[in-house]
Design brief:
about 400 residues, Nucleotidyltransferase, domain 5, eight-stranded mixed β-sheet, six-stranded mixed β-sheet, 14 helices, globular, binds adenosine-5'-diphosphate
């Protein structure tokens, strides 16, 4: 079966078409600037590029262009949309309702809608993506794969905040966690790769990208994670602040005459590596600037490393040790310098990086042979998980987690 994977943002649609017979990538595309002047679609199939600028006012129009590109006689990947057996959608927030991927029906759509207050930027876009597919491909089943689902095994002591219980009971205020599909994939893959018994394993997964989160995965289940009610909590990120004393919000709001919404927007979009360094949200730029001795870059990078080290220490404590530490996503997979900074002086835990092995960008063990904790790079593959879940659900097989 050919499965289409859709990741809908507020003004963009990323997609991949995968032939599940051999899990072969057939097409990869991006639609940008939906509803904004200059909307554009770019697609790659076997080195052939489809590139068009066309007005796309809505996600439905974007999906129509995607179908046009996928079925293009010269640059497309399929003859007709009938060849596509199912669509798997990445959905940000499943709240407490979804602990696994599900076949989309009206009830599921309503639940995604109900969770809009928890994921105000992404859930409406995810829903638009689903509804656009229903309109344009009415006979093709849709599956929703939630970023939050993997973290639903966290115990109450890990997910509750120290606020009056009524806010959890009435407003569902709690830690949900994100990047769940990635944490799920790499925590499982590292066990296969190292030959560990997943049912008796203690893994710390570090998904370090533009948005970053860590997870403690005990015996294959998420025990704790660094992101919270929203993706703002946790370590310093590209433009997000990560953890801070909530009183900072009030203090800045009062002194700068800003609303809470304005402060939150600043914490999401103007903070983190960008805000601290005053240079860039991209780690590559900061590495270059740090090499030139620019203080903003040096301190921003040090803060990121500091925060990640704190979580690793905390998660090792929660699990009474750790068997493997995994690095993944843009920074985790590619930035050996940052990995070396993070893993420095972890001898007390039994983790020691091998500088030669650490040069890799591929799936590899990067710790020394005598390191009792294995440190690994495992490239993430969220699309693969979405595609496998989608296939299992439409074929009526149990999901392999
Ligand atoms: P997102 O969270 O938006 O998916 P990524 O996972 O691509 O983003 O992570 C973006 C970060 O990863 C940036 O800070 C960037 O510096 C870093 N990064 C991505 N690709 C590379 C690369 N090839 N080499 C070094 N750093 C990279």
């Amino acid at each position: 079966m050919k499965v289409l994977i859709l990741n809908a943002g507020s003004s963009s649609l990323k997609y991949q078409l995968i032939d599940m017979n051999g899990e072969k990538l057939l097409a990869k595309g991006l639609i940008e600037r939906i509803g904004i002047k200059g909307s554009r679609i770019t697609q790659k199939v076997d080195g052939k590029a489809f590139d068009a600028e066309a007005p796309m006012k809505t996600h439905t129009e974007g999906i129509k262009w995607m179908l046009k590109a996928l079925t293009d006689p010269e640059k497309g990947a399929v003859k007709s949309m009938d060849e596509i057996g199912a669509v798997g959608h990445r959905v940000l927030h499943g709240g407490e309702r979804f602990t696994a991927s599900v076949l989309v029906n009206d009830e599921v759509k309503n639940a995604i809608r109900d969770n809009i207050p928890l994921g105000p930027l992404h859930n409406p876009a995810n829903l638009m993506g689903i509804e656009a597919c229903e309109k344009v491909m009415p006979h093709t089943p849709n599956v929703a794969v939630f970023d939050t689902a993997f973290h639903q095994t966290m115990p109450r002591k890990a997910y509750l905040y120290g606020v009056p219980m009524k806010y959890y009971q009435t407003l569902h205020v709690r830690r949900y966690g994100f990047h769940g599909t990635s944490h799920r994939y790499v925590s499982k893959r590292v066990c296969e790769f190292l030959g560990l018994d997943r049912a008796h394993s203690r893994i710390i997964t570090c998904h370090l990208g533009n948005g970053s989160s860590l997870a403690a995965v005990l015996n294959g289940k998420c025990l704790d994670t660094s992101m919270g009610l929203t993706p703002l909590e946790g370590v310093l990120m590209g433009t997000r602040s990560g953890n801070l004393d909530p009183a900072v919000v009030q203090y800045i709001a009062n002194n700068e005459k800003m609303t809470v919404d304005e402060v939150l927007s600043m914490l999401n979009k103007e903070s983190g590596l960008l805000g601290v360094s005053g240079i860039s949200s991209d780690m590559r730029d900061l590495d270059d600037a740090a090499d030139r001795g620019e203080d903003g870059a040096i301190i921003a990078r040090d803060m990121l490393v500091w925060g990640i080290r704190k979580y690793i220490g905390a998660y090792a404590a929660e699990m009474n040790g750790v068997d493997a530490i995994v690095f993944t996503a843009g920074i985790g997979e590619n930035n050996s310098n940052l990995r070396a900074m993070i893993m420095k002086d972890f001898d007390y835990l039994g983790a020691r990086l091998d500088p030669e092995k650490n040069k890799t960008r591929n799936e590899a063990v990067i710790s020394t042979d005598d390191s009792t904790v294995k440190v690994c790079v495992i490239p993430t593959d969220e699309e693969c998980v979405i595609a496998r879940d989608t296939l299992a659900i439409v074929e009526g097989h149990p999901i392999v987690d």
